[in-house]
Amino acid sequence: MTTDPRTYTYPEDLLRERIILITGSSDGIGRALALESARLGAQVILHGRNTAKLEKVYDAIIAIEGAPRPSIAVLDLASANAEGYTTLAQSAADEFGRLDGLVHNAAIVGDRFSIEQYDAVEWQRVIHINLTAGFALTQVLLPLLRKSGDASVIFTSSSVGRVGRAFWGAYAASKFAIEGLSQVLADEHRHTTLRSNCINPGATRTNMRLAAFPAEDRDLLKTPEEVLAPYIYLLGPDSTGVTGESFDAQ
Ligand code: NAP
Q: How are beta strands 19-22 and 152-156 bridged, if at all?
């Protein structure tokens, strides 16, 4: 029987001894995933751009009984240069020597204008944070991922990364490209143990969603905690061999 990642259930120690870096873990889905991964025994590297917010997530994790103490990696994906990426990778190498999971979660929506009206500088900013930063981080972390016997890379897509929608401009284009980036990485590693997949979390009650749909009834939306099952599935050993695919969390 094949696993439906949306309804995946897992033991309490599923991610024990796995080292997992989650981008944008200061808020929303990334924060919820960091807490749940740590609860399942993972050594989490909390990435974000806001140290104070990351420290709050750190405090929440060390309050979980038995959770390994996380690490914090501060890097603003809008402005990071090559040295910033290298320093992040070197710190992870010095501290852990390998990486078992890399979750590309950080993103911004950017402006919501028609293509005709879309500002070119804003276009580049959104593509840079949502796509190019994911490429740069993957590239610099691949040597560490290869040191894992069961490495999993997860990219975060969106419904508008599958079917284009008016006024979603650079965000939609970046998510289509993320699907492509994940497939290319998966194909390049098809003879190795490294897997790469996409997850579309679907409408989820976070600040990003609230900013994009301010008039929406938030109570009707899934919480970040309710969309985590496919992420946990892809980060754990039950998804070994699953690669180049794209999943919906809802
Ligand atoms: P969120 O609550 O806004 O969280 C986004 C995270 O990305 C935050 O930790 C944020 O840091 C970080 N981030 C943004 N810009 C950054 C930068 N320049 N450098 C470093 N970190 C940066 O969003 P979310 O709703 O959880 O979204 C998570 C992922 O799911 C995104 O890829 C999004 O596209 C995708 N998604 C979400 C929905 C939804 O309905 N929520 C639907 C489809 C797809 P700060 O805390 O410092 O802002």
A: unpaired
Q: State the CATH number of the domain containing residue 127.
A: 3.40.50.720
How many structural domains are present in the chain? Answer: 1
Q: What share of the chain is helix, strand, coil (3-state, %, to 5)?
A: 45, 15, 40
Could you read off the pLDDT of 195-216 as tens digits, one per residue?
A: 999 999 999 999 999 999 999 9
* For residues 128-153, average pLDDT: 98
Give catalytic status of residue 233 as yes or no: no
In the reported structure, the alpha carbon of residue 192 is separated from the centroid of ligand 1 by a whole-number distance in angstroms of 30
Tens of pLDDT, residues 43-102: 999 999 999 999 999 999 999 999 999 999 999 999 999 999 999 999 999 999 999 999
Q: Is residue 215 one of the residues assigned to a domain?
A: yes
Looking at residue 3, what is its pLDDT?
83
Atom of ligand 1 nearest to the CA of 224: 26
* Ligand 1 contacts CB of residue 37 (under 6 A): no
Round to whole Å and give the CA distance between 122 and 104: 21
Residues 8, 58, 85, 171: which is the catalytic one?
171
In a domain, 184, yes or no: yes
Residue 6 within a domain = no
pLDDT for the residue 221? 97
Average per-residue pLDDT for the chain:
97
Cβ of residue 27 lying under 6 Å from some atom of ligand 1:
yes
Q: Is the CB of 106 under 6 A from ligand 1?
A: yes
Distances (CA, A) of 5 to 27, 64, 95, 156, 178: 23, 25, 31, 15, 20
Write out the residue range of the structural domain in which residue 193 sits.
Answer: 15-248
